[in-house]
Amino acid sequence: MVALGAFPAAKLGALLLRQVSKPIANFVKERAKQSPVFRSYVCMPPAQFYNWCEVKMKMYFMNLGTAGKVKPLSETMAIELGSNLLGEGIIFVVAAALLLFEYNRQVRKEQAKEDIRLQEQEDLTNAIRDLDLMTEQHNAELRRLTYLVDDLISKVNSKSYSGPDTTSETPKSSSSKVDTKRQEPELKKQISNDINENLLFKSIKMLIQSIQQV
């Protein structure tokens, strides 16, 4: 399938090359008719050389021996053949130059893509490094907050559960009993506040631990 597809494409390319080279060949013919110098030194020598090579190769492959001298082409035939050779040669050079230009353009394009890929990879590496640094700073801050919360919880616990002073003497007068009854609501309120603070600090500590796990 590849050979069958490539053969018509090759024939089409050769036909296109001949069609495009015809105007150039006609220009060379007119130039050769008008200028003896162009005819003698530019148009005819390639034709005579091509004719010499063709005759030699035909005799070699047909086992006819070697010709001592190849008969040169006539001036008309040499101009015709030389014009066609120059036209096709010019088209071939232009096509080769275009192919070389396209190849260099593709190479530069691929190089630009590779440079962009390397730059993106470097940017991604730098971003990961920055994230690692931010994570370390975040963990250090969480450790500091955890230490502060633990310290506050220990202080609240020692304050809330220290209990009344049992070493003090029991009041015997009725006035001291009244004062004690008046102070009971305030003591209960203080204990309740201490318990609430303790629960708040414990909640903060649990929140910090959950953040660390994430």
From TrEMBL:
Matching PANTHER family: OPTIC ATROPHY 3 PROTEIN (PTHR12499:SF0), OPTIC ATROPHY 3 PROTEIN OPA3 (PTHR12499)
Basic and acidic residues bias spans: 178-189
GO annotations of cellular component type: mitochondrion
Family: Belongs to the OPA3 family.
Keywords (A to Z) from UniProt: Coiled coil
Protein name: Putative OPA3-like protein
Pfam families listed in its UniProt record: OPA3
Comp. bias (Low complexity): 166-177
Ranges for region Disordered: 159-189
Any one biological process term the GO annotation gives: regulation of lipid metabolic process
Taxonomic source organism: Schizaphis graminum
